Amino acid sequence: MFKKKNETSQSRLPGHIAVIMDGNGRWAKAQGKPRIFGHKAGMDALNRAAVHASRRGIQAMTVYAFSTENWSRPMDEVKFIMSLPIDFYSKYLPILKAENIQIRMTGEREAMPKATLDAIDRAMEETRENDGMILNFAMNYGGRRELVLAMQAIAKAGLPAEEITEELISQHLQTAFLGDLQDPDLVIRTSGELRLSNFLPWEAAYSELYFTETAWPDFDEGALDAALEDYASRDRRFGGL
Ligand SMILES: CCc1cc(N2CCCCCC2)n2ncc(-c3ccc(F)cc3)c2n1
After folding, report:
1. Could you report the per-residue pLDDT of 159-173, keeping only the tens digit for each?
2. What is the DSSP string of 115-159?
3. Mean pLDDT throughout 92-99?
4. Is the pLDDT score of 3 beyond 50?
5. What whole-number distance in Å separates Cα of residue 213 and Cα of residue 215?
6. 8 A C-beta contact, residue 20 and residue 187
7. Maximal C-alpha separation, the chain
8. Whose CB among 72, 143, 163, 241 lies 3.0–4.6 Å from 198's, allowing a Cys bridge?
């Protein structure tokens, strides 16, 4: 019996999706608007995608909100981006709470502005009891930095070389709190670039990759369904035959 065209059984659904939300600036520029207009639209698209992913049964969604390299952008753009969690908290937190979504953060808190961290901490605290989809914000995050920090922690523990295993390294990554969901089954990148840009290099070693020309602000429920349908059609081998 063939499944109906757009039916994705639960078993063929990724448990954890990771999203590089790219194309916000170019999307704004194409409309003659400033880049920050695109970041604001990107925030609205993020809420829409998170609610839809949660309703489709996705268990964890990690989004690349700000990379360690993004600090080199113009100061006014960084300042605006750092205000988005505050805006998101007031505009979307009630919606995510009603969806039983749990907000988490992955990355280095130190360099983040206090007001930004306060909004994120409030969002995490107010959704801590939720047991639905985990919405994990990779923020001030870089994959190689994450690996350096893990290796530094392992070195400081003074462990003998034979005790350094893949499991031990995974346990020392900033994503360790995700447990069995730590490795994304599917990585989605919007806006046409065909690279991972230092996003989850260890965790995504066996992930299916999905690229779309669609800019992030235009990546709606139908676009997410198309990515999930494509994933369901793939035959994952994890390095085997
Ligand atoms: C500080 C980096 C950043 C960038 C950003 N953008 C800009 C980048 C791409 C598109 C999405 C919109 N968003 N959107 C929501 C948040 C957010 C983060 C944590 C939280 F608890 C609540 C909301 C966010 N954070």
Report:
1. 999 999 999 999 999
2. HHHHHHHHHHHHTTT--S-EEEEEEEE-HHHHHHHHHHHHHHTT-
3. 97
4. no
5. 6
6. yes
7. 58
8. 143
Tell me, what amino acid is at 180?
A: D
ipTM of this complex prediction, to 2 decimal places: 0.99
Q: Are 191 and 23 in contact (CB under 8 A)?
A: yes
Q: Tell me how far CA of residue 196 lies from CA of 80, 146, 236, in angstroms.
A: 24, 15, 19
What is the identity of the amino acid at 227? Answer: A
Considering the chain, what percentage of its residues have pLDDT values greater than 90?
93
Rounded distance from Cα 16 to ligand 1 centre (Å): 19
Interval between CA 209 and ligand 1 midpoint (Å): 22
- Residue entry with tokens 């993020």: 46
Residue 170 in tokens: 């995974």
Residue 70 a catalytic site member: yes
* CA–CA dist 241, 229 (Å, integer): 23
Closest CA to ligand 1's atom 12: 43
**94: Cα separation from own chain's centroid:** 20
Q: Which amino acid is at 241?
A: L
Mutation pick for ligand 1 pocket among 43, 66, 87, 89 (CB with most ligand atoms within 8 Å): 43
Q: What is the mean pLDDT of residues 60-88?
A: 97
Residue 181 C-beta-side C-alpha neighbours within 13 Å: 16
CA of 240 to the centre of ligand 1 (A): 37
